[in-house]
Specification:
Elements (H helix, E strand, L loop, with lengths): L1 H19 L2 E5 L5 E2 L4 E9 L3 E10 L4 E9 H4 L14 E9 L8 E11 L2 E14 L1 E2 L4 E6 L13 E11 L4 E6 L2 E2 L2 E3 L14 H21 L5 H14 L12 H12 L28 E9 L5 E10 L2 H4 L3 E7 L7 E6 L7 E5 L3 E2 L4 E7 L14 E6 L10 E3 L2 E4 L9 E9 L2 E9 L1 E2 L2 H37 L1
Length: 489
């Protein structure tokens, strides 16, 4: 009897659970959606009960509020059959979809699908279940550009200088991956401690890492040399001075009396370890003469920060020791990979030294008193360069004297001479254009013609002065005559 009661209780409990019904809700996963695309959110739910309603929400304000974006009320949109046999009810699968056309940045966030069904035991009770999904809207980069840091900068003939290219990528979400190429080949870079995100897949195996370490050691030793003026003629002169004094201690050769006597005489006769006392050597070469590696190390920095519109701005910097002989007319490109792009986005520049500036003078035939403008209109470019890069700096000087305003030189792309006097006729002006890759000079001669208007004006003033003098002389004569007449009377 007890066993029969237990079996009846179990059957009753199972019938009660089945009568109450069940509800499961899930939302189909979504890949990242590119801004401007149309996306469809799909909410799937399975139940053996009768649908009451479906409500879609968008979670806003950091999760503190919900915005209702879609509602489906089964009581108003469907009919319900009261003749249906609940004991034979089958599980039904439903799907609710919400279409978001041309998604924007503000559509990014959390979405929830809430489903309600009637409790099979009572029409007054509703069983609720929900599912959620995060919609991620990605934005491709809006712009990419490559600039030179610290530009414009002068050309240095006797000292090696570091050069930095900066790749600026704006308007992307999330931050893109940025890398550099030289002449179409990926550059093997050395990430620095300032890098705020991964550089990309540019790592090497341990053998390459050891080789890189050796190259770095060579570079640091070379930098110890290139930090000074080491024109080869000066270096030989320095060594000859040391040999005359017998001071080759850096080669492990002490004097005949040993290191003690060398220490005693060091304060009196040791030369300073500089080249300041050596006369300047005139170098008639276009490019520098320092020791330089043909395979420099490239140092990479990567910085990013969020902008007010939710996108990221990325600045990738590539720094190396510039070699004008090898780097002139080299093509550097910055490439960007982003999940919203079907192919890499790139910007490229060709390093080029300024050559053959083309000067223009306005007016072409200057007259005395005119304002003359001499400006640089362009350069002679190589076959692979479309412009001089980095931007050159310009310096104007007057050969054999000062400029019209009394200054020794003028900086800028244009030289303005206001109200030129006749004394400037035949003057020679020099324009020096330079960037870290090279320097060039060009000259132009100013020819100043007489100004007929000024000449006529001077003649008119002279005529007026002569007439006034004659009238004054006549008036004086009349007054003297009247005075003489009065005295005779």
């Amino acid at each position: 009897m007890t066993g029969l009661i237990a079996v009846c209780c179990l059957l009753l409990s199972a019938h009660t659970l089945h009568t109450a019904g069940y509800l499961t809700v899930s939302i189909e996963p979504l890949p990242h959606v590119v801004i401007g695309d149309t996306v469809t959110l799909k909410c799937n739910f399975q139940t053996d009960g009768n649908l009451r309603e479906i409500v879609w929400f968008r979670v806003i304000e950091g999760g503190s509020a919900k915005q209702k974006i879609f509602t489906y009320d089964a009581m108003e949109n469907t009919s319900y059959s009261h003749m249906e046999d609940n004991r034979k009810r089958e599980d039904l699968v439903y799907q609710s979809t919400v279409r978001l056309p041309e998604v924007q940045m503000e559509d990014d966030g959390l979405y929830e699908c809430h489903v309600g069904i009637y409790d099979r035991s009572s029409r007054d009770k509703v069983i609720l279940a929900s599912g959620s999904i995060i919609l991620t809207v990605i934005v491709p980069p809006k712009s990419i550009s490559v600039v030179a840091a610290n530009s414009p900068a002068p050309f240095s003939r006797y000292e090696a200088q570091n050069f930095t290219l900066v790749c600026i990528v704006t308007g992307a979400k999330p931050a893109p991956m940025v890398y550099f190429k030289r002449d179409g080949e990926l550059i093997d870079v050395v990430p620095t401690a300032q890098s705020s995100s991964p550089v990309g897949d540019q790592s090497k195996d341990p053998v390459e890492e050891k080789s890189r370490g050796r190259r770095q050691a060579v570079l640091w030793s070379a930098q110890g040399l290139t930090s000074r003026d080491i024109d080869d003629t000066k270096l030989q002169k320095s060594l000859s001075l040391l040999e005359q004094e017998g001071k080759l201690a850096r080669l492990g050769q002490d004097g005949p009396n040993g290191p003690e006597q060398r220490q005693k005489q060091g304060s009196k006769s040791d030369p300073e370890p500089t080249t300041e006392t050596i006369p300047e050597t005139v170098v008639s070469r276009e490019f520098p003469r320092w020791v330089q590696s043909s395979d420099p190390l490239y140092y990479f920095q990567h910085r990013q920060h969020a902008r007010g519109d939710g996108t990221m701005e990325v600045r990738a910097m590539l720094t190396w020791s510039l070699n004008p002989q090898l780097d002139n007319e080299a093509l550097f490109s910055c490439e960007v990979k982003h999940p919203a792009l079907s192919m890499p986005m790139q910007a490229e520049v060709t390093l080029a030294a300024p050559r053959g500036p083309k000067l223009s003078m306005i007016p072409s035939q200057a007259k005395v008193g005119d304002t003359v403008r001499i400006s640089v209109q362009g350069f002679q470019l190589g076959p692979s360069a479309s412009e001089v890069f980095p931007e050159p700096m310009f310096t104007w000087t007057k050969v054999g004297g000062h400029l019209l305003d009394g200054s020794e030189e003028h900086d800028g792309r244009e030289l303005v001479l206001e109200r030129v006097p006749a004394e400037l006729n035949g003057s020679m002006f020099r324009c020096t254009a330079q960037n870290p890759l090279g320097s060039t000079d060009t000259h132009t001669r100013l020819i100043v013609f007489d100004n007929p208007r000024l000449k006529k004006g001077k003649e008119h003033l002279i005529a007026i002065g002569t007439a006034a003098s004659q009238r004054s002389h006549t008036l004086t004569s009349i007054l003297l005559l009247l005075s003489f007449t009065c005295k005779l009377t």
